[in-house]
Amino acid sequence: MSDAQVIQKLTEFERLFNLSNLVNDALRTVGWIFVRGLSLLIDSLESLTDDILMIKTFFNNPQVVEFVQTIQPFLYVLLAGSFVFTGYLIIFQKKFDREGLLINIFISLMILGLLSPTMKQLNEFTDQAVNQVKSSSSSSIYGSEKETISETILKENLNDLVAYDKNGFENYTENVVKNNVPTKLIKGLQINEVFDSNKLDISTTGSKLSKSFILWDGSEEVLGELDQSGLDWNNQYYYRYHPNWLTILVTLGVMGFTLFSIAYKLARLSFELAFNYVLAILVAPADLHSGQKTKKVIQSILNTFLVIILIFVSIKLYTIGTAYL
Description:
Keywords: Membrane, Transmembrane, Transmembrane helix. The protein is mainly alpha-helical.
């Protein structure tokens, strides 16, 4: 490779060829420790979110079921009182919706008899929808079941000069492989590892690039040679890895806040499901005359399951957008 070609490659990949020194070593070490700390937090929040997602079946908790069974005699009293009140309205109100009464009675009986198994079916459908959202599109943040969110964020925002060398240092703007580091090892990288041709299996082109830098001789750009003949700590090398620091920190920070908000939202929705489940059983027998309150409670239950699905759809779209940018 001619000097002109080396200069062209160094210019083209200028963003990735960063010289190592003691100051940069310290800054990169501190930055990587901070990134790993954020990653640990994200992984914990991700696990917490999955755990909270499992408690949305709180409405089917044995204690909740036992409570519903203990109030069944009271439900019969409500139903009888509601029939009496509805009869009064039929007799004394000419505008009473008599056709809607049969529908309201049917809905009330369905709620009293089938609400619990129906909610179990809705819960299973929600689980399937959430799992489908999380598992689809391997290029997204969820990647595969073996990868955590933070691992995928780091994987997608880490440039490895060795990987570019294997691709012949093709055009930086093209869709080339940024790194070949296994995802499970991404957090354990030595972030200050250098691009040393004596220690790494790289091509002739990569070896030439690892030892060269651009000089200005007063009239044109010329190629200089890095000083790599002294002590290891004082030699000049390029860093092997170039993380997209800003993207990683912003993405991890936003993802952490998002996962915390999701965990809180899911916990609240789980309680609302149990509350609306009990509320529907109480309201249905007492609302025969209009059915409006019963319909609102049922609508709230359906909306809760829908919101749970949409939460994971929204985070999916966000992370796909992050990867795209």
